[in-house]
């Protein structure tokens, strides 16, 4: 890490701030930090390197929004997410970035299109909110994509939008989900050699930037109108998905 140029340090600091912002104010925005880190560190290694940074951001989000999680929805997701994580771990040595990233991007774009259709044409009391099959599919996809590429943010963002949660419940539910899931992933990433003592040292150096981003996100979330919040989540999900194709 001492070999990084000044420009690369700036990229990593900005990525850390984006992670903090996404965990406390704009869920889904964190997908933008992934290609930034991958531009400095090899893509596969970056999936483990960025994980402690994500957990640090999750901890801030959980602390601030700890009373706002929708636990019934989370409990529906977790068993299937764990299965998805195991599937992703098993696939890490069998699939490369070029194979998996476009697949994830396509899935997110399809989900985004379905959610836009639901908002425009479906009955507001759509059964989608209560259909157990939706939780199974989302849980599996989120677990697999978070293990493979830390790219479950857009998937969860679109899912939580479809659940019509209030803004604070949206952020709190997302924060708790990713805190528990990312913590669960640590032994898998360590076993694959993607988390090391050196990478943790560098992660610690970026903590102030994560905290700064989280502070901005918390202040931003207090004042953002609901409609604008939803539009920003959708925009970041689409941008993140499109980026995965390149």
Q: Which key terms come to mind for this protein?
A:
246 residues, mainly alpha
Report on the structure:
- With 246 residues, the chain is mostly helical.
- It has one domain (6-243).
- Helices cover 77% and strands 0% of the residues.
- It has twelve helices and no strands.
- The mean pLDDT is 83.
In percent terms, what proportion of residues is strand? Answer: under 5%
Count of beta strands: 0
**What is the count of helical runs?**
12
Rg value: 17 Å
Helix share, percent: over 70%
End-to-end distance: 25 Å
| Broad structural category | mainly alpha
Order of helices and strands: HHHHHHHHHHHH
Give the averaged pLDDT, no decimals: 83
List the helices and strands and how they pair.
Blueprint: H1 6-24, H2 33-38, H3 43-49, H4 51-64, H5 71-91, H6 97-121, H7 132-149, H8 153-162, H9 167-191, H10 197-205, H11 207-223, H12 226-243
Briefly, what is this?
With 246 residues, this protein is an all-alpha fold.
